[in-house]
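Give me structure tokens for this 121-residue protein.
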Amino acid sequence: MAKLIPDGRLDSMLGILTNCTSISVCSTQPTTRTEAVTTYMLATKTITSANFTLADDSTVGRKATTDVHSAISITNSGTAQHIAGTDGTNLLWVTTCTSQSLTAGGTVTIPAFALKLADAA
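Here you go.
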């Protein structure tokens, strides 16, 4: 018997992940919201779920692709290693990024990327 998770259910799960109020560039992998928005935060930007587009992924299942976020003000100097999405109380997701040195007072761009959920297997 085949396994199935309908696209609508996968989209509901992605909806939780994309219900962000901010996206942060971090110097190391945060494991809590506080680490993402304070402890390891180098730059942050306010976003909403409207900054994500849901679609089929040709190899995995479903994906939520974020917009490009340009000219984000860098608050703290350090080496960017991770990007984190948070809401008012939770760390929603963390992903890696290209390691690069950031200097306070400059700006950084977060390119588009996708959060993916696989079809049932």
